[in-house]
């Protein structure tokens, strides 16, 4: 049996930044590393070519009567910039205390290594385990998984043979409180570019005779929310899935210390829509946010110009039952209606993702029909996590988005069991990313117990 921590170090040393063409060798190195590791523990490995970065499909077990688990992960990582803020080089892993530092340690190489290690231990102990396992590991998650929909379409017949998808690409609040994520928000993103005069103008000579594009952009932004924080677009909330009491109860178990949360965020006060706590709002409500805004002079000192152009980047997070196409249409209609007619406006589509929700068995008052194996997986996870971590998991929707989970459900019909493993202090996508090694070890033991329970005797 290999040492999981040493293998994770080796994995991190490959600078597998999918969005950076300069990291082509690092991408190939990470792909070869994880493929070789799976081969070494008895898997048949296939490298599926895509237009960008390959997807690894690794399988073991051929008996069609055995349960079939598909384990998802990704071998690509975010860029490490700004490099000067790292205390140790981003791709030279270093252990400090109970943490392993390095880009990708928590997102997603550490959690992926957790599951690979669990499978390795289980197969070493039970080489004849009656369980089919497919690892599905992509290399484009950090750039929006552009090749994944085509891959799903061409491999759907194979993937439909699975019973459920098992993954760890979601978070937990503390090292001893695991969260099983049962919902992910969807996405709609766009850029709005507003043009006034054909070129920048002297503000003294021409101010007061035309609308400043920055003013047009800011007036638009101000119109898209009500004073109490709701999105001010007719129809935006029409399809939102109601929140059940069991969900509110689970969220309350997550924590009720608003002062501590506010201090963590570094804000003087919350601005939450009425009827929802801050802990609820990030999980069960849709949002409209401004992710970037600009126009005019940005340098030192002053430059008294009326800019020719201004822009804003907008993202909407969607919850269960909302459709990206409908929300995009409502958003664009509102932008065009509220944009002053004395400027021109261009809306540029960016990517989107469908929200996802799965209701764990024994939770909802109006449960949806589930496969027996999915229900068995949730119950196995509940028992294993309680045993290993000392308390049962919480079942929560998450504020973030993993669009491919909804894609998998749409194309294959498979639901996902998402066992969170990374912590707020792990600094995902930021300098000094790290992974808690105690969480990793307990995660290995929990994953091993879950998979063994699925296999049965």
Describe this structure in words.
By secondary structure, the chain is of the alpha+beta class. It folds into two domains: 4-184 and 356-455, Aminopeptidase; 186-240 and 286-353, Alpha-Beta Plaits (2-Layer Sandwich). The chain has 13 helices and 18 strands. It has helices at residues 4-12, 24-40, 105-125, 148-159, 203-206, 213-223, 245-254, 258-265, 278-284, 324-338, 372-389, 403-412, 437-455; strands spanning 44-48, 55-60, 68-74, 94-96, 99-101, 132-138, 164-167, 179-184, 186-195, 201-202, 287-295, 305-306, 309-318, 344-353, 356-357, 394-398, 416-419, 434-436. Strands 1, 2, 3, 6, 7, 8, 15, 16 and 17 form a nine-stranded mixed beta sheet that branches. A four-stranded antiparallel beta sheet has the order 11-13-9-14. It has a three-stranded antiparallel beta sheet with strand order 4-5-18. The longest helix has 21 residues, at 105-125. The protein starts with a helix and ends with a helix. The mean pLDDT is 95.
Overview features:
457 residues; alpha+beta; Alpha-Beta Plaits; 2 domains; four-stranded antiparallel beta sheet; 13 helices; 35% helix
| Net shape | globular
Q: What is the percent of helical residues?
A: 25-40%
Number of helices: 13
Structural class: alpha+beta
CATH topology of the largest domain: Aminopeptidase
């Amino acid at each position: 049996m290999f040492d999981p921590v040493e293998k994770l170090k080796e994995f991190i040393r490959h600078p597998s930044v999918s969005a950076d063409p300069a990291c082509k060798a690092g991408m190939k190195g990470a792909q070869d590393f994880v493929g070789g590791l799976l081969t070494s523990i008895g898997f048949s490995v296939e490298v599926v070519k895509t237009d960008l970065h390959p997807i690894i499909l690794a399988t073991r077990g051929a008996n069609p009567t055995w349960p079939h688990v598909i384990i998802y992960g990704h071998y690509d990582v975010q860029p490490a910039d700004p490099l000067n803020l790292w205390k140790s080089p981003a791709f030279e892993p270093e252990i400090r205390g109970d943490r392993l530092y390095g880009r990708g340690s928590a997102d997603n190489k550490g959690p992926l290594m957790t599951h690979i290690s669990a499978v390795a231990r289980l197969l070493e102990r039970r080489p004849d385990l009656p369980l089919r396992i497919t690892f599905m590991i992509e290399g484009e998650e950090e750039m929006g998984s552009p090749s994944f929909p085509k891959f799903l379409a061409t491999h759907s017949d194979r993937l439909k043979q699975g019973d459920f998808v098992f993954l760890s690409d979601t978070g937990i609040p503390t090292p001893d409180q695991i969260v099983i994520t049962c919902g992910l928000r969807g996405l709609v993103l766009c850029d709005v570019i507003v043009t006034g005069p054909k070129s920048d103008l002297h503000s003294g000579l021409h101010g007061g005779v035309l609308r400043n594009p920055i003013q047009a952009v800011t007036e638009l932004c101000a119109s898209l929310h009500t004073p109490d924080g709701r999105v001010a677009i007719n129809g935006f909330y029409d399809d939102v899935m109601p929140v059940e009491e069991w969900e509110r109860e689970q969220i309350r178990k997550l924590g009720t210390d608003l002062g501590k949360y506010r201090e963590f965020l570094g804000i003087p006060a919350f601005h939450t829509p009425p009827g929802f706590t801050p802990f609820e709002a990030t999980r069960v409500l849709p949002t409209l946010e401004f992710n970037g805004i600009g126009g005019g002079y940005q340098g030192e000192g002053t430059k008294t110009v009326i800019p020719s152009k201004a822009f804003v980047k907008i993202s909407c997070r969607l919850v269960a039952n909302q459709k990206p196409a409908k929300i995009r249409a409502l958003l664009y209609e509102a932008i065009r209606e509220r944009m002053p007619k004395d400027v021109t406006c261009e809306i540029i589509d960016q990517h989107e993702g469908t929200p996802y929700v799965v209701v764990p068995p024994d939770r909802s008052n109006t449960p949806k029909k589930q496969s027996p194996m999915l229900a068995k997986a949730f119950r196995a996870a509940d028992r294993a996590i309680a045993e290993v971590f000392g308390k049962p998991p919480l079942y929560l929707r998450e504020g973030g988005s993993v669009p491919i989970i909804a894609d998998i459900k749409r194309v294959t019909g498979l639901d996902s069991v998402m066992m969170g493993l990374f912590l707020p202090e792990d600094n995902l996508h930021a300098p000094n990313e790290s992974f808690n090694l105690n969480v990793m070890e307990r995660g290995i033991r929990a994953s091993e117990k879950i998979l063994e329970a699925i296999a049965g005797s």
